[in-house]
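User: Predict the structure for this protein chain, please.
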Amino acid sequence: VDKTTLARNQAGIDGGGIFVDGDALSPQTQFVLFTSTISANTAKGNGGGLVIMEGPTSIQDSTIAFNNADVDRVGGGDGGGIFVFTPEENFITNTILAGNDDLSSRVKQRDCSGTIESGGYNLLQSTQGCTFTGSLTGNILNQSPNLLPLNFYLGNEVTQTPPQGLTPTHAYTPTSPGVDDGNPAGCIGTEAQNGVSRHLAATGGGGPGNCDIGAFELVGPDV
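Assistant: Here is the predicted structure, written as structure tokens:
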């Protein structure tokens, strides 16, 4: 799944946006989501945005935001953004998990639930309910990315009138902690979901060569 937005879908049980079950895949098949946005999806059970039951999964350079689990509020769902059932072969790299919610009355697991194998350079607004293994390099935890509402942003949300991006994404302000703090080895491909080139010379906190974390790339002077 590349440069795609999955938004405002509803699941009667689990996986409002995507449900990955390795039982339905051949052993050689890997589910890959990159440079994409999963937003405003809901599930009555687990994983408002995404559920990974089992099977190799890779999420890179993407934004998972404002999804809700347990929307019927009966206490049977966790992981507003992502729910991981089997803690193996799931890699999340250079991705934003933020603004998601778990509407159950028990302990909230808003952005994620389960064990996630990190590839580094992720931005998570809430780590409640998550256990991270793998590379923790560059992860930004318990900070808001200052996401703007889902829209067809092209680049700089301040100067762009009207929005002209090809698919809707969540832009962020120049002061977002995700700006220029992506993987210094580079993002997948040279173009972000909003249709602009990934930074080749960054000026923010991440240093030269860093792209932004998530599916969006900010255009213009960084702060």
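The chain has a mean pLDDT of 85.
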